[in-house]
Design a protein that fits this description.
357 residues; alpha/beta; 45% helix; binds NADP nicotinamide-adenine-dinucleotide phosphate
Amino acid sequence: MLSSSTSTLRLHQPTRPHRRHPPAPAAGGTTHLGPSRRWRGPPPAAPPLRARPQRIRAVDAAQPFDYESRAAGLLEERQHLKIAIVGFGNFGQFLARTFARQGHTLLAHSRTDHSALAATLGASFFTDPHDLCECHPDVVLLATSILSAETVLRSLPVHRLRRNTLFVDVLSVKEFPKNLLLSSLPPDFDVICTHPMFGPESARDGWDGLPFVFDKVRVGDCPARRARAEAFLNIFEREGCQMVEMSCAEHDAHAAETQFLTHTVGRMLAMLELRSTPINTKGYETLLRLVDNTCSDSFDLYNGLFMYNKNSTELLNRLEWAMDSVKKKLFDGLHDVLRKQLFEGSAQVPSTSNVRK
Ligand code: NAP
């Protein structure tokens, strides 16, 4: 049986490194391995967090062949994953730095040969995707541009991977890769769609407190596959990310309002070629930073936010309407002043209370 994606938004408390532990045994001595292990606050009778691993070991010692305790052990083993990053550009490399620091084994593949850079991270770079797949990674992480995702995915010899490999994408839109992965991959593959809501610029000082959106679209209902999915999500949880479980459709609705709007305003301001002045206000400096933050991403990325999120066109229309409304308010007021001058011979500007709202 497969766990299906949820339409409910769940905010999970961020946890600190080493705070993730195998689930504590429930009453009756069995261990819960539910579909989600995000930390939701202490259960009433739970032991202190630090004591938990010892309790699991005690269960293992007493019942070495018990199904649940073997599963808990598997969860521990699975903390170190072999991750293949497909699309080793700006964002793929950014993620790889943290994956490497956490001790995961890294493989990488991209259109361009990034082998020298990969070597500095201890990652093995493969120019041929067949060689990459034959290494049997636990996780294949798709980090290509949104626009190239379909071509890249279809170029992968997925038949060379293990039968139930976990595929994860980090594309900044979510419904498109969800449909793509479900329609392109064999049904035995697990699929998690994610969007780290930060990048090399905004998270240069770390990921602590930054939102990480995920949708466990398809995770096979067996301990090993659930443990692998949890181990992958734990990478972000350990860094202190705010873990937000949300359906891909909900993500796209919110992202048009937040991310696409932010990038559009940043790119519009960039067209004005704003410069720093000797009298910058705080607000103006915020605008300058917005230009930097948004325009350092590739135009392909921005274009993908527009092309592959069905909510983006409406947002552009609303933005245009908002600009027109503000202009109209100003010009209507100006019109009132001119009319007074023309017809009443008064050159005085009316007080703001006379300006039509
Ligand atoms: P990007 O321009 O969106 O993607 C660059 C990557 O796509 C590079 O690896 C590039 O290959 C590959 N690529 C582009 N066109 C290709 C083509 N025609 N055929 C094969 N590969 C192609 O920039 P990015 O910032 O690295 O983003 C990567 C992904 O992460 C995107 O889906 C983006 O939405 C997502 N994301 C980015 C951020 C961020 O802050 N940057 C945050 C969250 C999610 P080469 O290696 O050959 O250049």
